[in-house]
Amino acid sequence: MTTPGNAPLPAGALTLEAARRLAEREGCTVTPTWCGMCGPRSNCAIYAFAKEGRLLRVAGMAEAPQNRGGLCCKAHAAPQWVHSPDRLTTPLRRTGRRGEGKFAPTSWEEALDAIACTLKEQKEKFGPESLAILSPARRDYSEYLYRFLTVHGSPNYAHSGICAMQMSFAFHYTVGARPVPDCRNADVILVWGRQPVYSGPPLGGANALADARARGARIYAIKPSVEADGAYATDWIPVRPGTDAALALAMLHVVCGEELIDRDFVKTWCYGYERLAEHVRRFTPDWAERICGVPAAQLEEMARTYAAAPRAAIDVGNGLEHAPSAGDALRAIAMLMAITGHLDRPGGNLLAAPRFERPAPRSVHIRGRYTRDWVDRIVGPEFPRAFQPFLEGTSACYCRVFRNVLEENPCIHAIIAPGTQPSVSTRDPRGVIRALEKVDFYAVFDTHRTADMAWADIVLPALTPYEIDHPFLVRGPLLMARRRAAEPVGQGRSMQQIFLDLGVAMGYGEEFWQGDMETCLNWQLEPLGLTMKELRGHPLGITAPARERRYERYAEVFTAKSSRLDGGPWLEQGKVALYNTLFEAAGFSPLPEWREPAESLTGTPELAESHPFILSDYHTTRCFSAGWQRNIPDLRRLMPCPSLHIHPESAARSGIADGDEVEIRSPHGVVRARAELWPGIRRDTVMMPHGWWQGCAEMNLPDLPLLDGGANVNLLYSPDDKAISDPLISAMGSQTLVSIRKIREN
Amino acid sequence: MEYSLVFDPDRCCGCCGCVNACRSWRGGARRRMELIWLHAEDAPSPRHLALSCRHCADPACLAVCPGDAIAKTEDGTVTVQEENCLDCRACADACPFDVPRFNEDSGVMEKCDLCRGLPVEGIAPPCAATCPTGALRLELVEREEKREAEQSLLTLLKERRGQSFPKEY
Question: pTM for this one?
Answer without folding.
Answer: 0.96
